[in-house]
Amino acid sequence: DAKTTQPPSMDCAEGRAANLPCNHSTISGNEYVYWYRQIHSQGPQYIIHGLKNNETNEMASLIITEDRKSSTLILPHATLRDTAVYYCIVRGGNLYGGATNKLIFGTGTLLAVQP
Amino acid sequence: KAGVTQTPRYLIKTRGQQVTLSCSPISGHRSVSWYQQTPGQGLQFLFEYFSETQRNKGNFPGRFSGRQFSNSRSEMNVSTLELGDSALYLCASSLHWGTGELFFGEGSRLTVL
């Protein structure tokens, strides 16, 4: 699975959009980008994933560049409850029967939403 | 719909003992994965199960083992505990195998003295 690079920490004002970047320059054609977050003392929470098109759900939007070497997770109106560590994960699809749920977590970005 | 349930939530053991952790997946979910989280190593994959079969295993010693039952519930066992096994052990379930959309429990925090 491709390695990802994320800034260790970011701040965001409450009510503003939080834009979390992720670099995955070695991503291959069949690998998806997943985002999870982990609020202190809780298990990780799935946010969103995408292959090459931009994706949006009730939690966030995922913007993937055309060359797929980087992506941005957007929380449109950050609240204090969005303070968490955000993980960007690149994961291969099912190839040659090698299906797996394995996720390789990096160190993530600690997003601190300020009042 | 109930989430992933892990028991016990907290436990303290001494070196050399063994421990069993339990995970009940979301109803209808057939795949269960286990992860270890420590301050030094972060989140690391332990193993995953689907249809009572271990499908993948992380880079952990043989002291770490697990199993899945016919009702999809899973247990993991750590034998001959070491101080370094102190960690948050997280279980995650998914509806299908081979999906990256996992639902995590709140974990079992193990302290080894």
Mind explaining what this structure looks like?
The complex is a heterodimer of chains A (115) and B (113). Chain A has 115 residues and is an all-beta fold. Chain A is built from no helices and nine strands. Chain A has strands spanning 9-13, 18-23, 31-38, 45-50, 55-56, 61-64, 70-75, 84-92, 109-114. In chain A, the strands form two sheets. A five-stranded mixed beta sheet of chain A has the order 1-9-8-3-4, with no helix packed on it. In chain A, strands 2-7-6-5 form a four-stranded antiparallel beta sheet, with no helix packed on it. The mean pLDDT of chain A is 91. With 113 residues, chain B is an all-beta fold. Helix content of chain B is 0%, strand content 53%. Chain B contains no helices and eleven strands. In chain B, strands 2, 4, 5, 6, 9, 10 and 11 form a seven-stranded mixed beta sheet that branches. Chain B has a four-stranded antiparallel beta sheet with strand order 1-3-8-7, with no helix packed on it. The radius of gyration of chain B is 13 Å and the shape is globular. The termini of chain B are far apart.
What percentage of amino acids of chain B are in beta strands? over 45%
Strand segment tally of chain B: 11
Strand content of chain A: over 45%
Low-pLDDT parts of chain B are none
**Helix count from the secondary structure assignment of chain B:** 0
What is the averaged pLDDT score of chain A?
91
Major pleated sheet of chain B = 7 strands, mixed
N- and C-termini, Cα separation of chain A: 37 Å
Distance between the termini of chain B: 37 Å
Can you tell me the overall shape of chain A?
A: globular
